[in-house]
Amino acid sequence: MVKEETGTREPEKLTKKDAAKAYYRWYFANEIPHSNERLLAPSLLWALKPSLRKVHKDDDGLKAAYKRTIEFFNTQLTLGGGIITGTLTNMEEKRANEEHAGGPVMMSDDMLNMTKTGLMGALAGVGDAIDSGTIQYIFIAIAIPWALAGSAWGALFPSLGFVLYQLLIGRYFAHAGFTQGREAANILNDDKVQNILSLLSILGMFMMGILAGKYIPLGLNLSFEISNEVFVMQDFLDSFMPGLLPIVVVMAVYYYYVKKGLNANKASLWVAVILGALALVGIL
Question: Distance between CA 60 and CA 265 in Å, rounded?
Fold first, then answer.
């Protein structure tokens, strides 16, 4: 194997393109080298490697940067990964310039590590709530009518749309991290961003309500004869709240998750048993 030469040349200047490249590499390698000891750190190192080699021109500085980056790391793909890859790209460039100048190094190992560990947990929770808890289901809700109509887009659109969204939003946050550094996380505190997140949450809940009412075929099979007139219980429920039973089932499952934890298999089993029993006795 031919060893790549490094010298003591001046660090190259990084741009937002380098930050975007780091995010794209992070995106595609995110779960591939998953390690029980370091979790996603190998993916982060592979993402930042081109930028690190651009700025750290001596062997010792490059090895030290590799060691810093390979330390334990775990965060959400787009928000956490985008901001942190962009921020670390910016900080490693400053670190290399300080080392090359021969003066005091203000961008210390502790500062780099504390920035990484301080951001990764906080951003992970917010990113999961936005992506996995809201955006993903909006794409699914849009595609369900196509799937029921037999169109292949019903299967393809959620995946393709979500991938495109993750690439674009992650690239945006990588640019923000590169230009604003650690302050990029404050983007989430901006009033406009908070309004957008609130609207997305409302839209996600709205879409879930539509799905529950329209695509969960559940109704009562009870009827009574009163004064020679047939009284159908489901018609009565529909007269004041169509889709009441489906939303009751959805809320019951949600309540189960809150009380017993997010165990989808047990929840599905209980729903099947209860609804099956009610159907056997003729209630549903």
Answer: 51
